[in-house]
Structures are given as C-alpha cells and as structure tokens.
Predict the 3D structure of the following.
Amino acid sequence: MFNWSLYLYSFYAIGLFALFGWMLSLITDKVSHVDSMWSLFFLLAGYTVALLNYDTSPRILLVLTLLTIWSVRLCVHIAWRNVGHEDQRYVVIRQNNEPNFWLKSIYIVFGLQAVLAWIISISIYGALDGETPLNPLDYIGAILVLFGLYWEIVGDYQLARFKANPANKNAVLNTGLWRYSRHPNYFGECCVWWGFFLFALATGAWWAIISPILMTILLLKVSGVSLLESTITERRPAYLQYIKSTNAFVPGMPKHVE
C-alpha cells in the first residue's frame, strides 16, 4: 500500500534544498550550480521516502544504491564541467529576465527544476515499496539502469577527453560511442529512468510511467538534444555532415553519406 504522504514529504525536502541553492546564488551571483543540484534532488527524494519508511529491505537497498551511483556521479561531473564559469544558457536567461533576476530566479530556475524533479521522482517513490519482494522485472530494471549508466559515463568521459585537446577546437567528436549516437550520454540517461520505472512497475506502480515519459521529452525536446543542436551548426559547420550520418539519440550504425 503506497503512502502518498511520504511522496509529499519528499516535495518539502526538495523544496528546502532548492531554497538553499537559491540563497547560494545570492552569494556567488551565479545559478549554474542548479545543474549540479538536479541529480541530488532525486537522491534527496529517495532517501527521504526510505528513511520515513524505516525499511531496509533488499529492494530499497538496491534502488538506493543505483540511485546514489547515478546521482553522485552526475553531480560531480556537472560541477567539474561548470567550475569557474556560468553556463551560457543561464547567461541568456539572466539577460532576458533583468531587472531583479536575483529574485525571479527563485521560481524561473530553482523552483522550476525542483518541481520537475519532484514529479519525475515518482518512479523512485513507486520503486521504494519495501513490502514487494524483488522479482524478475526488478532485475531487468537493474540491468537497464546499469546499461544506461555505461552509455552516460563513457559518453561523458569520451567527450571531456575530446574537448581537453586544443587540437579539437571546433571539431566534431564522431568516434567511440559518439560514432553511433550524437547524444549517447542522453540516451544513457533515458535508459536509467526507464530502468527505475521498471522497478516501480514491479511493485504495481504503473502510474509512475509519467516519470520516464517526462524525462524522455525533456532530453529530446526541451533541455537536451533540441537545445544543444539549435545553434551548434553555426559554431561547427562539420556538424551538418555528422547529423546526416549519425542517429540523434538511439544508437545505430553510421549511415554512408556521399
């Protein structure tokens, strides 16, 4: 039996953390750290529900372990990537929302991401049902999460190594996992969330499907593929050829282009 009050408590926890992030932005005059906080919203939601459940069943331990690995890895990666500068997306958002962006950012940046994270975290909530024993659907979910983590971690590593080489300035990465998908890290992220949904489905929480669907839409149409590729061809003309030969999201063999 799902206790919906626990899901509401996770909203309070995420909201307080978002408020902390906003207060930090008043000190640093930057809001990019909200990207590092993104994965921690889900970690906070998961541990809030688990602790209030007073349960350490194998299911809860497995889900929390996978969630922790995904969350901490992504947080560290984004924090390292953004160190010392403001992400260009937030520079534009700031310019478009002056004056008083410092105040508006509490709902434009931190509040919006907190609410989105809380809605998407419903699959984590559904998965953390200690009364349901692990079953085959859980093991498929775990495999899918690990598969997604591989694509996400390796893709991010290959891109970071590519960018670290000055000779690759304005060049296009089309080797490694990036040979099969223009966004292997986002594809991996998508797999992770469909994997967590399978954990939730194994407990009967079919309604948690809103979580991976919303995450997939965000990755494809909002903050992921569409946003990144909206201006990239202006900065890297060779990317047009890359688009013609390589799948945008789901990996596939490169196409032969004349």
User: Anything to note?
Assistant: The chain has a mean pLDDT of 92. Residues 135-258 form one domain. The first helix runs from residue 4 to 28. The chain has twelve helices and no strands.
